[in-house]
Amino acid sequence: MFQETPIYSRLVAERGDVPQLVRGEAERIQRDLGRLIALPPQPPAGGQPYHPRTTH
């Protein structure tokens, strides 16, 4: 895989491990979306469930 180079190590020391931070944030978003998508549809607050009209 990727071999660290002196310039990469210096950038990580100066700026942080940006690829790792992005990867972690992407995984968190993926988990959150997975939970949201898995939920059954909810009726609107204080109203009746939405039933789309079909026209024939």
Automatic annotation (TrEMBL):
Region (Disordered): 36-56
Top-rank taxon, per record: Bacteria
Stated name of the protein: DUF5753 domain-containing protein
